[in-house]
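Hey L., structure's done. Input below.
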Amino acid sequence: MKINKIIKVLIGSDIFLNTGWGFLGPVFAVFILRNIQGGDVKIIGYSAMIYWFSKSLLQLPIARYLDKYGGENDDFYFLLLGMFLTGFVPLGYLISSQPFHIYLFQVLHALGMAMVIPPWNAIFTRHLDKNNIAFEWTLDSTALGISIGIAGGIGGVLVAKVGFKSVFLLASIFTFLAGILLISIRKDLLPSKEKFFPPFKRFLRFWRQ
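Output:
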């Protein structure tokens, strides 16, 4: 069964991204309790609420914009920038000591992922192999399940043996690798008339209308 290059790279990037955050996911609440001043279950709850609420609102206008224009320049650059913004978030957690620090980086995480999810889904959908649609979506889901599961176990062991810094660094490194991997498909995507900066200028003009 042949899978095209773009689908392979997108799945690989998704694995890197979710493996990185898989290291962090099971221990993040413990980090807040131990390392954030006044850390308690309310702060854990608020941080989760801020992330999911912000991401859910931010990704809608981005998706609306990306749907309006042809080609995949906009999709690619939003996806790439979102990956790199997300990659800086675990480093921000490392220097956090107050609840508002966590909340701030949760908003940044939400913005990064709001820039990642709509274009990743759009590009993936456009380039699915005609006779493998269900298989390729399921392949991504299966790969993520395995990688996140393994990463969660490793993350817990690393925190127990060497501390939180290791999992935050791994989360950041794997997220940056996810972004770097995407560069390999830049020339294979559907072209549009504008290059790097014009899509973002156009995005600003679009929302001023």
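The radius of gyration is 18 Å. The chain has eight helices and no strands.

-- N.
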